[in-house]
Structure formats: C-alpha cells, structure tokens
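Newbie here. two chains, one complex. Structure please?
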Amino acid sequence: MPIAVEARSISKSFGGVLCLDDVSLELRAGEVHALLGENGAGKTTLSNILAGIYRADSGSIVIDGVEHSFGSPSQAIAAGIGMVHQHFRLVAPMTVAENLHLGWSKTPTIVTPRKLEASARRLMDEIGLYVDPTARIWQLSVGEQQRVEILRVLARGAKVLILDEPTAVLTAHEAQDLFRVMRQLVASGRTAVFISHKLGEVLEISDRITVLRNSRHIVTRGTAGATPRELARLMTGEEREFSVAEREATGPALLEVEDLCVLNERGMPALRDVTLTVRAGEILGIAGVSGNGQTELAEAICGLRQVGSGHVRIAGSDVTNATTRQVTSLGVGHIPEDRIGVGLVSSASVTNNAIMRHYMTAELAAGRRLKRDASRRFAERMVEAGRVQTRSVDAPAGQMSGGNQQRLVARREAMVSDKVLVAGHPTRGLDVHATQQVQAAMVERRDSGCAVLMISDDLDEVLLMSDRVAVMYEGRVMGVFSRAACDREEIGLLMGGHTTDHIDNVDTAGTVGA
Amino acid sequence: MIAGVRLARRLEVDPRRQNITRLLGAAAGLLLAGLLLLLIGRSPFTILSDSIEAIWSKRGVENVLRQAVPIVMCALGVALSLRMRVWNIGSDGQFLFGAFCALGISINVDAPDPVLLVLMAVAGALGGALWILVPALARAYWGVNEIITTLLLNFVALELIKWASLGFWRDTKSQVTKSTVLVEATLPRMWGFERLSIAVLVPVVITIVLFLVFRATTVGYEIDMIGGNARAARFAGVNVPRRIVTVMLITGSIAGLAGMLQLTGVPGSQAMGEGFSSNFGLSGFIVAALAGAAFAGVPIAGLFIAAMFYAGLVLQTKGLSVYIVLAIYAVVLIGVAIGEVAARYDLVRPRPHHVDVPPSAPAALTPTGPTP
C-alpha cells in the first residue's frame, strides 16, 4: 500500500516538558492505523501536530514527498489531513447542512436553506455517509453528531482522518456503526487513524498498531496476531495481572435500598421499585447500558435527588431524602459519573477541591474559621496518597490532566467512605494503569469493610470486580447474581431487556424487583 | 502579526503584573485623552495640573473621600455577589430604599441622636436587603435572572423617592419643591475635617471583614465554590439556594447602609429628591469590575473613580465641556480595562522552523494560509 503521510522525528515540548520525543509514524493509504498509549503518552499531541493544531518543535510531516509544517488546521486539511475531536465542534442550534458548510471556503456566498440542503445531500452521496441534513444538531444522538463531524472533515477533502478517542462517547451499538463507517472509508483508499486505549476495540478495527509510551515511539506492528496482554505490556511497560478474588460477604447490610421510585429531570420514572442490599466487605456491581437509571440510583442514595417513594438506609439509619451533608457524615463517599462537572471546581485550587468533603471537620475548621495551613497539608497528603500529579496544591485543579483530576476525586471520596462507596463509572476514560489503580482502591475499600456499589457499563469490569452483580434495565433491577453464577450471555440479554423465563440463580440477598 | 510575534494566553495571571498593566493602561488612556484635548485646542498640561491641584487640596481630598463612600460600598456589594457569579445591578435601588427607610425612621421616631442614628443604620441595611429579597428568592429557587429583576427595581425605587419628595414626605416649609423634609440627625465629623463624616470608616471596615471572610472562613469557601461550580458545591453538601439568598441580602444591605450614610453624612444630601443618588450603583459596578471582584482592590479603584469624577467637576467649572469630560472618563477606563486583559497574554515569537513548503509544491498541497 502507498504511504499517505509520514511523520519524521517529531519532537514537541510544552513549558519545558517533553511531550513527544523523536517520534516517527508512517500512515498508509487504505489502512486503519491505531495509535495506542496511556493517558499522557503523546497520542493527542502527535495527532494535533498532524492536524495543524500544534507546530512541532522539530521534525517534519511528509506527504507525497513534500515536506510540510502546518501553521493551522486549515493548512493541514488543505494538505489532506483532518481530525475529529473528542469534543465535537458543532453549533447545536443549527442544522446539519449549515454545520457542514460553516467556515468552508467552498460554501457559496449567497445561500438558502434549500441550497445548503441540496449541497449537503450531494456530499453525503459522494462520501456514502448519511445524516438528515435538515435536523438540528441538538436533536441528534451523539453517534450521529460524530458522523456530522466526520462528514465535515471529509467534505473538506481529507484523505487522512484522525479520530481522537471516538468511542469514548458512544454506546456499544454506536461504536459498531462507527467501525462500519471506518471500514467503508479505508475501502475507498482513505486512511483512518484511530486513537484509543481500549485494547478490544483496537484489535477489532485496526490493520496496524503504533504504541506510544512516555512520549516515545515503542513499536509499530500489524494487528494480526497481537494479543491484548502483549499490547497492555507495551503500553504500560510492565506485565500486570489484575484479578480480584470473589468474597462472600456475611457482614451487616450497610446500604439498603427498598422499593425505590425516583423521577428523572423530565418527570419520567427513572427508578421503579428498586430493591438492593450491599453488605460490609462486598462490591455490588450494577451492570447495564448507560441511561437505565444507574445515575439516578447513585444520586438518590447520596441525597442529590428527590426520592418519590421507598427507602434508603445507611448502616440501619434511614436517609431517604436526607441532605447530602447528612449522608456524607454517615460515611458515604460518591465518585460521581461526571467527575469534572459535578465533583470538581476546575477554577479553584487543588487544595480547595481536596477539602470539599472535610472542610467542616474539626481537623480543618474551628467554628467558622477555615484553617488554611491545615487544609494545605491535608491536600498535600491526599495528592501524595492518591498519586495525583500536580505542580502544586495551589494550582487550579482544571490545569491538571483529566486522569489526575479523576484520581483526586476518587481519592477524596474513598477517604470519606467509611461505610459506603458509590462509584459511577469510576474508570471511564482512564488508561490501563490508572484503571487498575482505581480498581485496586475500590478493592481496598471493600477489604476494609466498606460496602461498595459500583456502576459500570463495561461488563468486563463488572465481572472482574463484583462479588455480586445486579442488572438494571429501564429503571428496574432485572436480577441479582453472585459472580460465580454469572452467565455473560444471560446478563447481556437482561441488559437488553430480555427476561429469561426462569432465573434459577437469583441471589437471596437481593430481590428481583420487576 | 508584526514580525511573526503573536499573543499567547498565559495559564495563570500574576496579580502584580496585572496591577502594572492596569497602570500602564490608565497612562495610555490619559495620553490619548491628552491628544483629544490637543485636538480641541486645550493644553493637556494645564488641564492635568488643574486636576491634580484640585484633587490635592484639603477640599479636594474631602470631596473625593466623601464621594468614594457610596461608590465603594456599592462596589463591595457587587464584588461580593460576583464571587458567586450573581450579578446585582440593583445597587442604586437598594441604596435609595435604604436611605428611604432611614429617613422614615428619622421622621417617625423621636429619640436622642445617637440612638436615632443606630436605628437609622439598621433600617437602611434592612431596607436594602428588603429591596433585593424578591430577586434573591426568585433567583435562588426558580432560577429567575437577577440582572433583569434587580435592574428594574431601580426604577421602582426612583419613582418611590419621587412620590415621597412630591407627596407624603414633601418639605412644605422649604422653597425647594422636589425634596423631602430634612433628616433629623447627622453623623459626627471626622477629626480634622470640616465636611467629612465618620461614614468614611464604614467601607474600610466592610472591606476588611469581607477580605477576612473569604480568606479564612468556611462561608467564604462555600461562596467561592458556588461561584466556581454550583453543581460541585451542591455535591459537597452546600445548601446552594440558601447561600445565594443570604449573600444577595448582604449585598443589598451594604448598598442600603450606604444610602443611610449618604443621607446622614453628606452636607447637601440630608433630604431625598431626584438627585439624591448620582448613579453610585452603576459607578460601583465599574469599580467592582476594575478591581476584578477582589475586595482589597475595590477601595483603590473606588478612590480612582471618585478622584476622576471630582476632577471632571472642577474642569467643568473651568469651562471644559461635559462631553469632553465624559469622553476622558471613558478613554481612561477603557485603558485600564485593556490593561487588565493584557496581563493575561504574553507576546511570543515562535521559533523558526527549518522545514518550509518549497514554492514548487503542487497547487493542491500548498497550504492556503500564509507561511512564515
């Protein structure tokens, strides 16, 4: 296959920190090339240089034997390299056709909605990707919005399409759709660069794999014959096995949810008669596709959402509709699903974020007086224990990398969770290494006698971590199983709302509320 | 861009650097104002020396300090609400209603002066709080935009004062037709000054208190958290609506108290009429913005504005048109504002690249933008 783009000895540093160290990459026409690496390995920096967002300190990009140095994304796309970012650059109130033509030199000066629509349809026919051109962006699913982004980049003549963690925002079904699109693109001679740290997806879709680690190029190899374990070793530089021994908990029930009914923002039932029990020293995993009531369950337990009927008890005391502070003071930690949006104040210092749960305790406050020195020391200890990398605890939390922000929240919440830890998708967006850290932290909480409720839409993770598994679908608990009794296929069916005729292995500690 | 130099946004803003750029901005503004004066045939140097002379006299200092009191107090209230991302545009209304309530006490209560003054101060603060109560509740519990509600209530307060000065509290004995009766008690003078009352101490005390609250208390921490991310504050267990109401009431009471101080502390303002507030609330807003909502900066910015206003008054008596005076204010303020923003950027010269597109590159591959 001919070479589409070659990056030669690219180096780039930010503020004295080397982010890419002499990295070379060769992309062939007609291949899906996976760029694999942990958070901070340099994947995004490299692709931003290819796409003209950053300028390399040294090195060159060669296309058809001509060396380039892009000063802007429009220069890169004129040379045939386009990027689809993780966070879409679309204008929500405008239509698909309008978004496709926005800021494009080939858009005619005088336009009518009908003209744009016709031109959008023409583009879609040419490329072979379809979205209703009259729909407004906010009306589209995340998967469809991504398709608009791809269309926009391809319309501008991109031969090489860089997709930055495209599956992070997609459901499993949407991810399969995306893979179909990618195969179709490379079949037409284009190149797709797929950035991810999800090994399964990389093995499924890519033709070749390049692994980056610590800003360096480690290896480029064909996907055929690669194993997840080998790739994980290349990414992390070490071989790790992570397994969690299943335990049968006999301790007291620390978290009890009984016939819980809760409404969502739109006033529709989000939880319907949910009954669950989590005992001291066990992890109850909630399996299910996102959006089936898991978020509302976590919020209702932690005092962040009004309970319609039913009860929540923490270590025997009723906290139904108690305030967040009352729930926290009983020893409940909560790693929220939207860690950055709900769990952190990005503009505030790391210290001010670290003390969020403890600022009223005697250690940090005397009456209304906040002890600033004690707070600082408290934050320094938390940062150290949680392996959070930050310049200083005085720096704004938003300046840390996403992974470090997550680690800070996870550590803080683990510290308050004497009795119960509610974790919503705790490893989402984390690389192999950080995932294992967070998982180990949850196991540590469990082993020290805490009841852990872990929500995850990654079935592998649920099956790896949980002592018992509850499956949720449309606000109902479809079944509760001990890990040993878990049958992947059956759980998958329940997640999709298919009830099996007879469920023999329902655990007695949790009841089926369907 | 000039010679390939471009602006780069800084990660952090150094406050000391920002103060320098602010001063530079003000200087640039003054320079522009000087050019403006040259254009209309006035000597900028005479104008400048006249202004400095006017401000730097005992009378000038007294005047500037006196005018700074209501401006700084309104600005402190605004800065406090801005810490929580709440925009109280209604300082003027709260100022007027606070003064109105204080006047009501003076008219209806018969007590020795010190007692009366304390009662009036309480009434002023409560009045200001009352004037913002409905916007506060509406914002906190139903998400009603406080910019609109507080702003509109300013006009209601203005009409109320007009009604009082023409109707129920009208001074029937005096020749002035559009004024209420005079206030019964006045604040004691500051030692060493003739026309300056002890009111000037109040904004100083409030500044110190607010500074300490935000530096070293859990309440200040909670308010900053709400300002940074209200959802996170709620997650951390803060009762966000209640805090919003409390803080908004406090900002209202500061403005209301300022109204009472104006009524009892400023000669010539001892009755209420149309000119009672000369847009102190609006000036306060500018001051809070100039200070970047940092409490320690508010009195400094307030004095700056008050001095500029006083110089403007003096220049008008010397025959400078009011429009030129307003234009000078604007140019100087814009200079300061640009200085503040400028501190967030660095001028950088990107390193030269040893790889460039050769001119022989095929058309389709030539980058569309200019190459360095």
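Moderator note: The CA atoms of residues 335 and 386 of chain A lie 14 Å apart. The two ends of chain A are 55 Å apart (CA to CA). Thread marked as resolved.
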